[in-house]
C-alpha cells in the first residue's frame, strides 16, 4: 500500500511522456523508467499487484521523481542518460566499453592496417567486431602478406626488411602513389566484407606461376595463404547473400527474466554472438528496446549498417534515435536468423532457471536470512571490514563487498592506516575502525554513491561501537552495523547487534544458508586483509633493510623495489643489473656486500 506522501504525488502526475526515478529509504535512485503517459505508468506500480523483482522493487520505493519530455524519443534518450549516470540497481546496465577488437586502416598519406579496441571519428576504415584478438591478428597478418600497405615507420631513406619480404609498398624509401594505396585498400575492403573469391583466384594463379618457374618456396607460401582462406574464412557457413554488416536482436521472456541474444553478421557470416540474461521490471519489449539503445551508446562500438529486431518492438523509434536502419524481416534467411536467435535465447534462459533453483538458497536467500535475523529491512549490499598488524607495525584494513549473497570482488578495497597501533591497548582497534569507516563512507557521500544495506565488522563490541560512532555522529548516516564474533576455536559464532547500551548476540542456525554465508564473508575479509598485510609488511621490511645501507636514499630504494620487487631478487641480481638502474658502481657494490653479510648473519 502506498504511503500518504506517495498518494499525494500520484494525484499530481501529468498524462505526458517522460521519465520517472524510484528512490529507496536513503534517497538513492534504484530504478529509472520511461513512459508515454507518466500518470498511468507510475500509478501502475502502486495500484496493481506484482510478483518477482517488481514486487521487491515496489517494497523498497519510498519516493519518486518525474521529468517531463516533449516526445517519446526524448524520453528514450533521457532514460539512457539517467541509467548511465545513476546506475540504478533494478535497471539493465551495460558496461561502457565493448572490449571487442576491430581491424583499422588508418587515414593518412601512407596508411597502415592494425588492430584497435578504440573507435574514433578519424576518417579511418573500421571492420569488426572480431570474435577474439587472435582471429583479428591472423586476419591482419594474412592481409599484410597479400595486400601490403605500409609496415615500417616510413621515410627511412632505405628499403626496410618488410619491403624485401613483399609486405610493404616502400614508403620507407620512396613516395608511393596514392592510387596504389587506394587500389590495395579497395581489395582489403572486399576481402574483409566477405568477398574472398577474387583473392583466392589471384593467389592460385600466382602459385601456379611460381611453381612453373621452380620457385617452390614462394609457391609453398602462396599455398599456405590459400589454405588460410579455406580453413578460416570459407569454413564458416555463409548465412547471407549480401555483405551488409548487421546485428540481429531477439529475446525470450519468462518468470520476470529476459534472455537476449545478439548475432553479429559480418562478412556474410555469423562472426560472434552475445548473450545476456537479466531480471527486469518493465515489459520485455521495452526492456529490449532500452537494451539496444544502451548497446550502441557504449564507447568503441562500430554500428552496423542494419539492425534486425522482432515484431512489436518500436523499430521506428530505435531507427530515429540511433540513425541506423531497423527492420523486422517477414520471410527468408533473415527471418530464419531472427527465429534462431529466439531459440538460443530460450535455451539459455531454461539453463539459467535450472541453475537458479540450485543457487537461490545459497545467495540472495541466505543474505535475506541475515537481515531477518537482525530484524532490519532486506537489502542488496553488505560491506565487511577487518584489520591486521604485527605488534602495532604496518597497520592495514580491508573491505569486501557481497551483493545478493555473492562476492563483488571489483568493489573490494584496501587501506593503509595512518595511525600507529599499540597492541597493548584494545582501544586502538577502535581507532583503526574509526579511520577506515571515516575514509570509506565520507568518500561515498562525496561521490554520491550508493550506500550498503548492512556493515559487518570483524571483531567485537569495540569495533561495532567505533563504526557506529563515526557513521552517526560524524557523517549523519544510519546504516545498520553488526559485529562478526568468533568462538574460542576462532570459528564464526554469530553476530553482535543492538543499541549501544544493550548490545546482544544474534544467534543463527549453524546449519542454515545464512550462517554459511556469514562464515564465507568473515573468512573472505580475513583472507583479503591478511594477504594485503603480508605484502605491505614484506615491502616495508625490505625498504627498512635497504635504508640501513650507507648511500642508499629514497630514490635508490624506489628504483630497486620497482625493478626487483623482493630482497631475494636483489641479492640474486648481478652488479651490472643494479648499475643498469643508474646506480653508481660504489653504491651498487655496497648494496651487494651489505645484503650478502645480512644473509650470512
UniProtKB/TrEMBL annotation:
Q: Which Gene3D superfamilies match?
A: 5' to 3' exonuclease, C-terminal subdomain, GIY-YIG endonuclease, UVR domain, UvrC, RNAse H endonuclease domain
Family matches, as InterPro entries: GIY-YIG_endonuc, GIY-YIG_endonuc_sf, GIY-YIG_UvrC_Cho, RuvA_2-like, UVR_dom, UVR_dom_sf, UvrABC_protein_C, UvrC
Where does the GIY-YIG domain start and stop, copy by copy? 15-92
The principal localisation class reads cytoplasm
SUPFAM superfamilies recorded for this chain?
C-terminal UvrC-binding domain of UvrB, GIY-YIG endonuclease, RuvA domain 2-like
Enumerate the spans annotated as UVR domain.
Answer: 197-232
User: Where is the protein found, in the record's own terms?
Assistant: Cytoplasm
Q: Lipid metabolism among the record's keywords?
A: no
What keywords are assigned to this protein? Cytoplasm, DNA damage, DNA excision, DNA repair, Excision nuclease, SOS response
Q: UvrC family homology region profile domain location, by residue?
A: 248-471
The record, for CDD domains, names: GIY-YIG_UvrC_Cho (cd10434)
The cross-references to PROSITE patterns, in alphabetical order and at most eight, read: GIY_YIG, UVR, UVRC
Q: Which NCBIfam families match?
A: uvrC
Q: How does it assemble?
A: Interacts with UvrB in an incision complex.
Family as reported in the entry's similarity comment: Belongs to the UvrC family.
- UniProt xrefs under PANTHER family: UVRABC SYSTEM PROTEIN C (PTHR30562:SF1), UVRC/OXIDOREDUCTASE (PTHR30562)
Q: In UniProt terms, what function does this protein have?
A: The UvrABC repair system catalyzes the recognition and processing of DNA lesions. UvrC both incises the 5' and 3' sides of the lesion. The N-terminal half is responsible for the 3' incision and the C-terminal half is responsible for the 5' incision.
Q: What is this protein called?
A: UvrABC system protein C
The organism is Agrilactobacillus yilanensis
Q: Which taxonomic lineage does the organism of this UniProt entry have? A: Bacteria, Bacillati, Bacillota, Bacilli, Lactobacillales
